[in-house]
Amino acid sequence: MKPLFLILFLLFPVATFGLPDKPKPENASRPVTHSVPKPFTVEQGTHANRNLLLADSAMFASSFINARAAWSGAHQCVIHEEIPRNPGRVFRHSLELSLPVDAAVALVSWKLRKHHPQLALSLPVFFASAQIGAAITEYLAGCN
Predict the structure, then answer these.
(1) Are 106 and 59 in contact (CB under 8 A)?
(2) What angle do CA 40, 43, 44 make, to 5 degrees?
(3) pTM (2 decimals)?
(4) Exposed site from 22, 69, 112, 116, fewest CB < 10 Å?
(5) Whole-Å CA distances, 60 to 8, 102, 110
(6) pLDDT band at 84 (very low <50, low <70, confident <90, very high)
(7) Distance between CA atoms of 82 and 132, rounded to whole angstroms?
(8) pLDDT tens-digit map of 21-57
(9) How far apart are CA 138 and CA 144, in angstroms?
(10) Rounded Cα distance, 84 and 77, in Å
(11) How far is residue 94's CA from residue 63's CA, in Å, rounded to a whole number?
């Protein structure tokens, strides 16, 4: 009950007398115009193209990291004499599967760069992160 009376006691002067008036601007002859901030937009230019190329490069690099992880797992199996084969075949097979998909994603992201720049940048980043996650899983699995 006491907090209610305290709030009413503090708000009573404001309710009775009102808030003080806003001070007038120093230059009252001109009307005051407030500038509205522009919404966030992605500017198209060299930085956007550079970022897209960096994202595509990271995606292609993640393909090689994933292929190296597959080779590492196969090589551990050869060391433990569980499989009598060349682990280099696993590396080539992994690249044969992932590089065409990466090229298609890079082409789609390049086509989307003018009208949908956020989507164009997020596609290669998503695929690169998926490949890095798969590579981590293959490294941790060892001989699979």
Answers:
(1) yes
(2) 150
(3) 0.62
(4) 22
(5) 67, 7, 14
(6) low
(7) 26
(8) 666 666 656 665 666 666 655 555 557 788 889 999 9
(9) 8
(10) 9
(11) 8
* CB contact at 8 A, 73 and 143: yes
Kindly state the tokens that stand for 126: 């998503």
Whether 126 contacts 115, CB under 8 Å: no
Indicate the burial class of 46 (C-beta count within 10 angstroms; 0-12, 13-18, 19 or more).
exposed
What lies within 8 Å, CB to CB, of 143 at 6+ separation is 73, 74, 76, 77, 80, 82
* Widest distance between CA atoms in the chain: 93
Answer yes or no: is pLDDT of 17 > 80.
no
Token pair recorded at residue 52: 């897209």
